[in-house]
Specification:
The structure holds two protein chains of two kinds. By secondary structure, chain A is mainly α. Chain A contains 13 helices and no strands. By secondary structure, chain B is α/β, with parallel strands linked by helices. Helix content of chain B is 29%, strand content 20%. Chain B contains 13 helices and 17 strands. In chain B, helix 4 packs across helix 7. The longest helix of chain B is centred in the C-terminal third of the chain and has 24 residues. The chains are: A mainly alpha, B alpha/beta. Bound molecules: iron/sulfur cluster (2 copies). One iron/sulfur cluster binds next to helix 9 and helix 10 of chain B.
């Protein structure tokens, strides 16, 4: 080990780019801050508690498997924080906190650690956590409360005991724009979607902030424009065809883009460095695949939302894409 | 003139050229003792022609080329040979070296032995003459120049490309050559063109040297030669042979082939000036411009140093090093070699002495590969360093070979960008040598 260390310092190159892995991770965290702010604005303290507990779950399990529980070593790279925040943002504001904590544990435990840790996982950990919660607690995860400006109090559903059915003390639930579309053929107007005045997960509602975050991340070269642009274009074109055919039956592309978790998934999850293909061409195929799956599931699947499954499906294809889709090295014929 | 051509991928590290780019070339005073390794170039070491006790003159041939890929060596001073023994070379190896004690009373004027006019030579004589002058590529690799100029039967040289990119951060010796010796450069081109008769001669210079671009552009206009100065984008490794060709004529040198296979020839610009100095003034390659720089050098400078001068004396001339000095490098920070001490001589391949502080070379924390793809986007050979790094870690050398590791020329772009601090190039160097050794052994077996 010491030999290896010597080697790394004693050969060229002796200059290094400023971007390090923690730096990259924290750029993502920074870009999430306005979105978290919006979640607070629309859903209040309960929403913050959900985020806090999902992050805590991630940190807990990450530390449990590091050499010393109290060192905070592994947490420093910032990747667990991102997973926790992203998972939290996919949950409803009234989600039971203990479930959020459990979701964090599953996200890092099953989504990352069993694969061998940072960089080795095939599926996006936040989505693994979310998929688990959806399977385990289907009711809780589809109980949406409307934005209601309760800045300083929790929702009753937030504070249920583990493994007991929480009473729905609040009684107020709402449907998301996507479920209204799916089951009632009612389309929300685009202003509400854009500025966030609808029911949904913490991080589902305010489209414009995601666009800004995406632009920030692309400008800082944290993510590449390819994947978000390709997903958005695919969704617009694919869903646009149906909308043009029958605008009463099918939602407009704008509705498709700004409802549900599409923006969250596109900017933050599909672009996950570890689980997206490494070659440019592979990334195109991957992103177009995600776009197609989103539209297919949303329009014809049994669920109102399809972003999570679309991304997980293409995550599964990534290792194959990494093997099949190669770059042509310099000096070789096509 | 305005367009700045380039290749795809690559990186743009901070340049640090301002430390020395405007420092006029100074002459290194003569020192007491010179150590001249017989292996200062790629290929076979030269054969000594002198013995202990012999008096030698400045510019006198003291060792002859030993085979085709080898060059002669000349004394940088008037003095006495005090021995031929093993001495440490900048690449860390002990090599046979001629030690010369300078004559303290000599004026150290060059006694020229001007070769006959090149116009009366045929190509063969020209090649032999360049070899005899000890001229090698001065970019750093020190490849014998005459080997490059020998066009094999059936090959043509349509384009001559002179490499004035100097894309390594910190280095400015080629820059100063172009600014201060433009006539030698143009004359060298004229001589080379007399024999090679290329259709077009390009001088590729990175756009961060506008003075050099303007001067050579003016000279080129009035030269009557088909010379064109091409400003290239400031990007590393723009000065790599294949990248420069790609930038200028938009062709890729096929894998495993040489530039001549696509009718191009690339040579370092300072080597061209050396050719003129030989044919006009009878001065063989006995000295070169060395950039002494880095934030830990008191007074960065470009110095014309006779070969064999101990680096310590050269650095002393620059005011010495500051207390923060932590690393001594020979060459640039991207491809240069680390040195244990300054007690080694300047040789033909010494383009720069770079002294960095511990701040600049601090250890990177290592993380696992996060597949960010930055290395892919940086690799000028369009390889997949992330994949190659993983294969190297597992020792899967054969798979590395099928993934084109032998096309890697160790430019270091991938290591530079990797946010996880993975020592990619280091593992590629190891991998390449293992594969090469293995392949050589296989060949041996086949022969038997
Ligand atoms: S730059 Fe480093 S971390 Fe990123 S893909 Fe390449 S090897 Fe992996
Ligand atoms: S060192 Fe090799 S693999 Fe790395 S960027 Fe340069 S050519 Fe590519």
């Amino acid at each position: 080990m010491s030999e290896e260390k010597k080697l790394t310092v004693s050969t060229s190159p002796f200059l290094h780019d400023k971007a390090t892995t923690p730096w990259i991770m924290y750029q993502v965290v920074f870009s999430l801050i306005p979105i978290i702010g919006a979640a607070y604005y629309f859903f209040g303290l309960g929403a913050m508690a959900v985020l806090f507990f999902s992050v805590a779950g991630c940190f807990f399990i990450e530390q449990l498997f590091s050499k010393s529980f109290f060192s905070g070593d592994k947490i420093k790279d910032g990747s667990a924080l991102i997973t926790g925040l992203l998972l939290g943002l996919t949950l409803p504001p009234g989600f039971p906190l203990w479930m959020a904590f459990l979701g964090g544990i599953v996200a890092i435990g099953m989504g990352k650690l069993i694969w061998g840790g940072l960089g080795m996982n095939v599926f996006n950990p936040a989505l693994v956590g979310r998929a688990f919660l959806q399977a385990a607690f289907p009711t809780a995860i589809t109980t949406w409360s409307p934005p209601d400006g309760r800045y300083f109090s929790f929702r009753g559903t937030n504070i249920g005991y583990p493994f007991f059915q929480a009473d729905n003390v609040d009684g107020i639930t709402t449907a998301t724009p996507l479920s209204k579309m799916k089951f009632d053929h009612v389309f929300a107007n685009w202003q509400d979607l854009f500025f966030g005045n609808t029911g949904g997960s913490l991080g589902e509602t305010c489209g414009i902030l995601f666009l800004l975050a995406g632009i920030y991340l692309i400008a800082r070269k944290i993510i590449h424009w390819r994947i978000p642009v390709a997903i958005i274009l695919t969704v617009v074109i694919f869903s646009g065809i149906f909308w043009l055919i029958d605008p009463a039956k099918y939602p407009s592309p704008v509705f498709m883009l700004f409802s549900g978790g599409l923006m969250l998934g596109t900017i933050f999850m599909a672009t996950d460095l570890v689980t997206s293909p490494i070659t440019p061409k592979g990334a195109w195929i991957y992103a177009i695949g995600i776009g197609i799956f989103i539209v297919l599931i949303r329009l014809w699947g049994g669920l109102p939302e399809g972003v999570m499954y679309a991304i997980l499906l293409m995550n599964a294809a990534t290792p194959l894409l990494n093997i099949l889709v190669k770059v042509k090295p310099f000096g070789y014929k096509k | 003139m305005n367009s700045t051509l380039t290749f795809r991928h690559g990186i743009h590290p901070e340049e640090y050229k301002e430390l020395s780019e405007h420092c006029r070339v100074e002459r290194m005073p003569f020192v007491e003792e010179y150590i001249l390794p017989l292996a200062q170039h790629l290929g076979a070491p030269s054969k000594p022609l002198v013995q202990k006790g012999n008096k030698v003159k400045r510019g006198q041939k003291i060792a002859a080329a030993n085979g085709f890929v080898s060059v002669a060596l000349h004394s940088p001073v008037d003095g006495t040979v005090t021995g031929i023994s093993l001495a440490e070379n900048p690449n860390g190896q002990m090599v046979q070296s001629i030690i010369i004690k300078a004559d303290p009373f000599s004026t150290q004027q060059l006694t020229p032995s001007i070769p006959k006019s090149y116009e009366e030579m045929n190509v063969k004589e020209f090649i032999a003459s360049v070899q005899d002058a000890g001229i090698v590529g001065l970019g750093g690799a020190a490849f014998p120049a005459h080997v490059k100029f020998s066009i094999p039967e059936g090959k043509t040289c349509r384009y001559i490309m002179l490499n004035g990119c100097e894309c390594e951060p910190f280095l400015t010796s080629d820059h100063r050559t172009m600014v201060e010796y433009p006539d030698d450069v143009m004359d060298g081109i004229r001589i080379l063109q007399h024999f090679l008769k290329a259709e077009k001669i390009f001088i590729g210079i990175e756009a961060n040297k506008p003075d050099a671009i303007n001067i050579l552009h003016e000279k080129a206009k009035n030269s009557g030669l088909p010379v064109e100065v091409i400003p290239l984008k400031v990007k590393y490794p723009q000065g790599a042979e294949k990248m420069m060709i790609n930038a200028i004529i938009a062709k890729e040198v096929p894998s495993g082939k040489l530039p001549l296979d696509i009718e191009a020839l690339v040579t370092n610009i300072s080597s061209i000036a050396a050719i003129s100095q030989w044919f006009r003034k009878g001065q063989p390659l006995i000295e070169r411009i060395v950039t002494v720089t880095g934030t830990a050098v008191k007074r960065p400078a470009n110095i014309l140093v006779p070969f064999g001068t101990p680096m310590r004396d050269v650095v002393e001339l620059c005011g010495g090093i500051t207390s923060e000095a932590a690393r001594i490098l020979l060459g640039g920070p991207m491809m240069g070699m680390v040195q244990k001490s300054l007690d080694i001589p300047v040789v033909k391949g010494t383009s720069g002495i770079l002294i960095l502080t511990s701040d600049e070379v601090k250890d990177l924390s290592q993380y696992t590969c996060i597949r960010c793809g930055r290395c892919l986007e940086a690799c000028p050979m369009y390889l997949n360093p992330s994949l190659l790094g993983m294969l190297a870690k597992k020792g899967l050398w054969e798979e590395m070979e099928t993934n084109h590791i032998l096309d890697c020329f160790e430019c270091g772009c991938c290591s530079y960008v990797c946010p996880s601090g993975i020592p990619l190039v280091q593992s590629f160097r190891v991998g390449k040598s293992i594969i090469r050794e293995h392949n050589a052994r296989e060949k041996e077996k086949e022969k038997v």
